[in-house]
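hey so i finally got around to running the thing on that chain from the lab meeting. sorry it took forever, my laptop kept dying and i had to restart like 3 times. anyway pasting the input first so we r on the same page abt which one it is
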Amino acid sequence: MGGQRAAWYRLTRKQRGVVVAAMGLALVGLVLALTVNPALGAMVIAVAALVIIFTQIVAPPD
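ok and heres what got predicted. didnt touch it at all, straight out
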């Protein structure tokens, strides 16, 4: 847990905002998967996961 906490604080404020927004998108995907269509929800969750990954890879913290 300590390593995860340290990784979170190494992100810039803008990156943290993007990660929080992507987590919200993943939550929307979960709701879609449970209520509307599992495939659509899974696609939305996958996009959210890719956004989080690329936020940390493409724009690494200073």
